[in-house]
Amino acid sequence: MRNLTLSDLRAGLLDLFHHRDEALKATQTGKLYGPILAAKRKAIENLEDAGGRPVGDLTEADAHHDGLGTAIWHYTEAVLSHPFVPEERRAAARRIREAFIRDLGVLSDSYAEEAAAAKQNRPKLAELEADLRAAPTPDGKTLYDWASAFVDHGDKLAQLLAGRGQATGFEYFRQQTALRVTTIGLLGRFRAALRDELVEHPHMPRDLDERIFGGFDELSQKRADAKEKRA
């Protein structure tokens, strides 16, 4: 995978999270490396989309946004899983989940995608206010406060992206290079750890390596074939 470009890595990570997520979550190493790779994906997409350096602390805003989204999802999961919760509360939980965070996978979207989702979600705060305010939270507030903060931090991502400044050509190249090298290194360590896990647990499917890394392997082979044709 050492021949992959930053654009290749972007495409490979998109494929990994959109089409290979089930295989990724089937392993302990996948559960460990998945969130780290999701953060790398966001950084790559932001850098390539911007062509420059973000202004403000995007990482902090994104962490708050994703933490709130995770909390809302798990709150609704608890309501839906509990066998004795009244049906009207379960129905409210389903409406809230469908409106704000259908699954945890949306939290691995790019900064721009999360910002766009926040814009779409703001009107839903009013639409579902009664459902949200009827759900108390451990901090003495309600799910309305959590959902409002979730949308607010999505809006903050949009503001930070809009206010980003342009990096110098050298600085942009340096950022690209560092991100490419660290991401390839991370993928290599993930693959090595996965192979160790498969050795330790022979009952696991033997094709998990291919199911997880197949997209990257195809991209790497295309790069190698293109280089050979130019030679």
Structural features, described:
- This protein has 2 domains: 118 residues, no CATH class; 111 residues, no CATH class.
- 29% of the residues are buried.
- It is mostly helical and 231 residues long.
- It is globular and about 60 Å long.
- It is built from 10 helices and no strands.
Summary, kept brief:
With 231 residues, the protein is mostly helical.
Task: Summarize the helices and strands and which ones pair or pack.
Blueprint: H1 6-19, H2 21-25, H3 28-50, H4 58-81, H5 87-100, H6 111-127, H7 129-133, H8 143-162, H9 169-200, H10 208-230
Helix pairs in contact: 1-3, 1-10, 3-9, 4-5, 4-8, 6-8
| Secondary structure tally, helices | 10
Q: Mean pLDDT, rounded to whole units?
A: 88
Anisotropy-based shape: globular
**Poorly predicted residue ranges:** 52-56
Rounded radius of gyration (Å): 20 Å
Helix content: over 70%
Strand segment tally: 0
Give, in order, the helices and strands. HHHHHHHHHH
Number of domains: 2
Distance, first to last CA: 20 Å
Which structural class fits the helix and strand makeup? Answer: mainly alpha
> How large a portion of the residues is in β-strands, by DSSP E?
under 5%
- Biggest sheet features: none
